[in-house]
Prior knowledge:
The protein is α+β, with helices and mostly antiparallel strands and 162 residues long.
Amino acid sequence: MTLLHGPEVLRILGEGIATGHATFETSIPRWEAWDAGHLVAPRWVARDAVPAGALLGWAALSAISARTVYAGVAEVSVYVAADARGRGVGGALLRALVEASEELGIWTLQAGIFPENEASLRAHRAHGFREVGRRERIGRLRGTWRDVLLLERRSPVVGRDA
């Protein structure tokens, strides 16, 4: 992902916001805010071969804390364009994100997913994430209290004792 992908990344985020099942966000942030809230790497985009390499989705990580002890823990964001859903794009992005995170020394990935987002839950579980809890009525979205399932993936190679 580069700065040039910014408008398409935000457009796809907006499509996720519109579903009501992807995030508590209700408006698309400015690129500067999005950029500041995500790690510099890894950031991935999936492009279609035609037409003209349209962006199909993106994946990025966010730090969960500024504390040194949590330097190897990151939160996952994966968003797929509305017209690309159901084509395996999210799974491919998630696989690339997992591999890159381990290369960077990240030992735990976490994701907060609405229980209604079954496609995201399936994709995460297929890539080694497991449910570790349910945060009941953790926040309101458009006036409705929502639960979030907390999933995590522990790396089998990073952070293991010798």
